[in-house]
Design brief:
17 strands; 25% strand; 14 helices; 444 residues; single chain; TIM Barrel; Urease, subunit C, domain 1; alpha/beta; 9-stranded mixed beta sheet
Length: 444
């Protein structure tokens, strides 16, 4: 008797660890049950002819602003943007209001996401002076993506600036620590450059390359002393990449599509404060250095650092304007354009956006197209030519720094545990995202 499946993807070009080729995929009970020639029938036969079937994209750095800042974004709108952009899982940052620094705050976010999140999700807990002793316990809680450290002040109140405090965090748990590496003392020292008002192109002058390098250098020394794994988020400078390349045993590395695609001063002249984020978009020499590091294998993953603010907030004169920009919905088409233009291979894109995040954070059953794994797929048309516009953006902020960007490659469908949640630009069904499971948090 032929096998019966819940879903069969037919005739897609499937990207697996073994290579790229035409295959069918059979899905049963939310997991991949067969790859190759899949005889049998299914409740849903999905014709993927002409599409590439990628493992579901994981965006491991987003700020969804709930609770406390729902006028910018919330868990429903932010995860809808993710699904529309071909992203199947997001890891959300702790600088909300209240901050995610207690088990109760983590549980509140998980409760808020239930029935409202369109994609699977996990939440970072923020390191702070008052919770260092309890970080290891919180790392084991369901739905916890890990610990986030802000070495330099950014959006929100979380800050762990001094070496002794960072050392205490690194000694207090067991999972990889995600770090925003900017040196707070240098930020305070250089703030006078923009006090009283300045052009946004001064943002990378205030938060200069040395500010980032000092923090990353300090972090690596502390890691050597404690043995804790760290993940340096949104690396922006040539100097940091050279340093991190010499310390592959200590730290993993993230870059963002924005830092790989935009460069100052042009982006500040064109976008003004819409180009303002922390760490800053830097000049072309740093952008090219990020690509060299990516080509040489120094970069482990790409995260969007989706951090929406309203246009009214962004219209404030610099530096009163907040730092951050949306990105979860545009990650896939922007990076596929780089694939189309020959800057990276499709396999490397998959490693940076699926296998890489899963490997770094110990995600269970995600990040690969393989039998037994969750049936999470990002289906893309590599030949599609579309223009990214503000009107396409589902985030509550309603804008993107990539408005007008001519993309080559586009997400056509988002499939989450065998359920089609987006097809041809439309959300389908109900929001049914679940907490991501991690291998290092006890029994699955």
């Amino acid at each position: 008797m032929p096998d019966r499946y819940d879903l069969i993807l037919r005739n897609g070009t499937v990207v697996t660890a073994a290579g790229i080729g035409l295959a069918d995929i059979g899905v049963r009970d939310g997991r991949i049950a067969a790859i190759g020639a899949v005889p049998g029938s299914a409740e849903l036969d999905f014709d993927a002819t002409g599409l590439h079937v990628l493992p579901g994209v994981i965006d491991s750095q987003v700020h969804l602003r709930e609770p406390g800042f729902e006028h910018k974004e919330d868990l429903a709108t932010g995860t809808a943007a993710a699904a529309l952009g071909g992203v199947t899982a997001v890891f959300e940052m702790p600088n909300t209001k209240p901050t995610t620094t207690t088990p109760e705050a983590l549980a509140d976010k998980l409760a808020r996401a239930a029935g409202r999140a369109w994609v699977d999700h996990a939440f970072f807990v923020g390191a702070a002076a008052e919770n260092i002793e309890s970080l290891a316990e919180m790392e084991r809680l369901p739905g916890c993506a890990g610990v986030k450290v802000f070495m330099g002040s950014s959006t929100g109140s979380l800050l762990v600036a001094e070496d002794e405090a960072v050392r205490a965090v690194l000694r207090s748990g067991f999972r990889r620590v995600a770090v925003h590496a900017e040196d707070e003392a240098r930020l305070v020292e250089r703030k006078a450059l923009v006090d009283g008002g300045a052009h946004p192109r001064m943002h990378p002058e205030w938060r200069d390359a040395e500010t980032a390098l000092r923090a990353t250098s300090r972090l690596l020394r502390l890691v050597e002393a404690t043995g804790r794994r760290v993940h340096v988020l949104h690396v922006t400078t040539a100097e940091e990449m050279a340093l991190l390349a010499r310390h592959r045993d200590l730290a993993s590395v993230e870059v963002t599509p924005q830092h790989l695609t935009l460069a100052g001063p042009e982006c500040y002249d064109r976008l003004g404060t819409l180009a303002q984020m922390n760490p800053p978009i830097r000049d072309e020499s740093h952008r090219l250095a990020l690509w060299r590091a990516l080509d040489q294998g120094v970069v482990d993953c790409i995260g969007s650092d989706h951090a929406p603010h309203t246009l009214d907030e962004k219209s404030k004169p610099y530096p009163q304007s907040p730092s951050g920009m949306p990105g979860v919905q545009t990650l896939v088409p922007v990076m596929l354009t780089h694939v189309a233009e020959g800057r990276l291979s499709l396999q490397r894109f998959v490693d940076l956006t699926s296998a890489g995040p899963a490997r770094l954070y110990g995600v269970a059953r995600k990040g690969r197209v393989a039998v037994g794994y969750d049936a999470d797929f990002t289906l893309v048309d590599l030949a599609a030519r579309r223009t990214i516009t503000n009107s396409w953006i589902a985030s509550r902020c309603g804008w993107t720094p990539f408005d007008g960007f001519k993309a080559i490659g586009w997400p056509i469908a988002t499939i989450l545990r065998g359920r089609v949640v987006m097809h041809d630009g439309q959300l389908i069904g109900d929001a049914a995202g679940r907490p991501v499971m991690f291998q290092e948090c006890g029994p699955l």
